[in-house]
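job 3f2a | input accepted
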Amino acid sequence: MDRIRILQKKMIARAIDLAIIMQPRDLYYYAGTAQPCNLLIPAVGEPLLFVRRAWDFVLKETRLPHSQLVESARSSEIAAVVEAYGIACAKIGLTEDAIPASIYKKMIDSFPNSEVVNISPLVLEQRMVKEHQELEWISEAADLFRHAHNAILKFLRPGVTEIQLSARVLESVREAGGESIIRNRRWDASLPPEGLVVSTTNMWRISGHAMTITGVGLSNALPWGASHTEVVAGDLVVVDMGINLNGYQADIARTYVVGSASSLQLEVFNQVLAIQQVVLDKIKPGVKGKELYLTAEAEAKRLGQFQYFQGYGKMKGHYIGHGIGLELDEPPTLDDKCNVTLVEGMALAIEPKLIIPQFGGIVIEDDVLVTPTGYRLITPVERCLFEVRG
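job 3f2a | predicted structure (390 res):
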């Protein structure tokens, strides 16, 4: 209930009378269940959980007292219950970034005399700072990358295709207990469950909305991720993977070489590592998110690699990382405009990369927890360029 009380305080400060939580990750965060439900949180008083399906599961899963559960199959019934309970609803908060327009319109129609506002910023601001158990689950999710890494060392060799290697990576993490669904808040964001497995040929072909090493996928229907491209000796291979365990995500990337690394590959890797290290050294409570990006940008310029830092040309990003948690890519986005101040309990993915046409790309992505005095690295695999000789 502490999470709900925190949200209620935020609502009171902004004169929001009622929050209606429908998005599954937010519902899980506040109510402890991801079953089909709608959660009503008044600014003052006790919440009500409308259970649309799977009543018996909800009874076992939710943290709410059973007296606060209402069996209901239709969202149209919410307004009648709000009126019956005498809940104020002059201003209603909805997570406008994460519910379909059809449901949004239904809520507008159900409360014709209410002002509807976007409550997503309050929810996501609260979710940025994790509780101890959340940090433990994120750390356990990150630890599963060991299995992916071992699968890469075992199966990566000349002649294997990106998709074949990708399948082995997914198999290794699923066998270890990872959930295959990678959660994203953006309505148009989707990833293969094993993330992105990309070899040199496709590394500088940047697809989709993320300015990163994306790969080209198997078809135009999902044009990122692994393809049928065969790996050849000397190739770089990037594995950039979201891992879900207990509903919490880790986000880790490593770069491999098929055979011995060339002097240029080692040089570029060391430059990426240097960029990441200056950012890590900057992480501590009180630092603003944009300082991390500006630190990375300055190091990339010092190294003479800024034109390839986080992409190139029109496909160039201005970020160095992001939050992780119930979704793979959460606030704060660590870009040049991020005024969020780091606090203890944040979980961040730090992901510098250099993407160079014809050469390929190097990525190092590590997950860190912000501690009282700095950070704790939770990625289980060392930060190096791995030579896989088969």
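job 3f2a | The first strand starts at residue 18 and ends at 21.
job 3f2a | closed
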